[in-house]
Specification:
Metallo-beta-lactamase, Chain A; 2 domains; 22% strand; globular; 7-stranded mixed sheet; alpha/beta; Rossmann fold
Length: 420
């Protein structure tokens, strides 16, 4: 089996692996200025695509594969039902924000995704591009998967099995259980976002967040919680609801919440999401509404999670001048994003201008990725496998770390083909 890394090698973003020149695993983008894409954006021609989950760094470039005028030339796209709906929702939002400029796909390409879509549940093997494929719950966001690829067709087993972990979490969240899947595999392409970071237990993170929020509210401050629309917004809503903290929710996360409530089978605790939705007040974006809310002593959960757009572009400038206010970053901040800049320097470029922020800025690691302990525990079941490290800022360092521990581990370069 040959695996070519078209993206996600040595970086967080634009994840894309091509198996045997036929089967594409994910096709994402790396957000930033400018947005960057996997190798082969216009030339890769897979027979089928398998999508692990809907986040833009794994599915954001997917519509570009739908450009062929002949339906028979377009690849089938295999994913779970919520991933399908979410990916198309995010693609339409990308088109809206691009306003027709600098976007490599069209609304027609997004429509064609629906025509090529094939749904699968967890642990339901299927055939794609001559390979036997199986989805396993990755515990990252609702509908997210590990992808197990066998080089044999669906009714047989081949000589080689590749496990593409995609993004995964081993710790329980409010809405999802951590992954327990450990299928047999000869090679593991493993994410490494938190390869050298340890998180406190989830309960401690929630307690610290709620304590800090309550203190800010007692002092008359406003709390802005930038959060990813897919997964993180709903998780933060659930944390607030459980703690009895009223909140507003703004941005695409409101539509994603409704979507998740329609796919209850992919949630650990659908009742928790129902309670969270009941507890949150939805912002509809009427003129001046966001500015008025920002003047209240309240909590606002809003996109985007790394301050790269969305309603956060209104809220952060509105609260930035008052030290009593709090910007509570809720997850990982990729390098060269405004969120990372704000966390490290106390200022950020918001809507084209550099803004110093006098409001308090704190990070609370509600990440849905496995931390170092989770990664090591997961990989412990794959000591006899080839480990291919991707999706991280320090892939080579983590590969070296695992080699010292006795693993056959390496960190492929972008564009490199690995035979397993």
């Amino acid at each position: 089996m040959e695996v070519r890394f078209l993206g996600g090698a040595g970086e967080v973003g634009r994840s894309a692996l091509l198996v045997d020149d036929r089967l594409l695993l994910d096709f994402g983008v790396k957000t930033g200025t400018p947005t960057t894409y996997p190798l082969g954006l216009r030339s890769v021609d897979p027979e089928a695509v398998v999508v692990s989950h809907a986040h833009l760094d794994h599915a954001g470039a997917l519509p570009t594969l739908m450009g062929a005028p002949d339906a028979e030339e377009r690849p089938e796209v295999h994913w779970t039902p919520p991933t399908d709906e979410l990916a198309r929702l995010l693609a339409r939002d990308t088109l809206r924000l691009a306003d027709g400029y600098d976007c490599p796909f069209t609304a027609e390409d997004v429509r064609r995704l629906m025509e090529q879509s094939v749904h699968h549940g967890y642990r339901e093997p299927f055939e794609a591009a001559g390979h036997r494929v199986e989805f396993l719950d990755a515990g990252h966001v609702p509908g997210s998967t590990h992808v197990l690829v066998d080089e044999g067709p669906a009714d047989t087993e081949g000589d080689t099995r590749l496990l593409y972990t995609a993004d995964f979490n081993t710790e329980d969240q409010r809405l999802l259980a951590g992954t327990t899947a450990r299928p047999d595999a000869d090679a593991v392409a493993v994410e490494s976002t938190y390869a050298f970071d340890e998180r406190p237990p989830r309960e401690e993170i929630e307690t610290a967040f709620v304590t800090r929020v309550r203190r800010t509210l007692r002092q008359g401050g406003t709390v802005i919680v930038p959060a990813f629309a897919v997964g993180r917004t709903q998780e933060m809503m659930a944390v607030c609801a459980r703690a009895g903290v009223d909140c507003y929710v703004d941005g695409m996360g409101t539509r994603v919440t409704d979507l998740f409530r329609r796919h209850r089978d992919f949630l650990r605790d659908p009742d928790a999401l129902d309670a969270a939705a009941s507890n949150a007040r939805t912002v509809d974006g009427r003129p001046g509404q966001r500015e008025r809310i920002a003047e209240q002593s309240t909590v606002v959960i809003t996109t985007s999670g790394m301050l790269q757009g969305g309603p956060a572009m209104t809220y952060v400038p509105a609260v930035r001048s008052n030290p009593a206010n709090l910007v509570a970053l809720s997850g990982y901040q990729v390098e060269d994003t405004p969120g990372r800049d704000l966390l490290e320097t106390g200022s950020a470029e918001i809507d084209g201008r550099r803004m110093p922020v006098a409001a308090q800025v704190e990070a609370f690691d509600f990440s849905a990725h496995a931390d170092r302990s989770g990664l090591l525990a997961f990989l412990d079941d794959y000591r006899e496998a080839t480990v291919l490290v991707n999706h991280g800022d320090r892939c080579e360092a983590f590969a070296a770390d695992r080699r010292e521990a006795g693993f056959d581990a390496r960190a492929p370069d972008r564009g490199e083909t690995v035979t397993v």
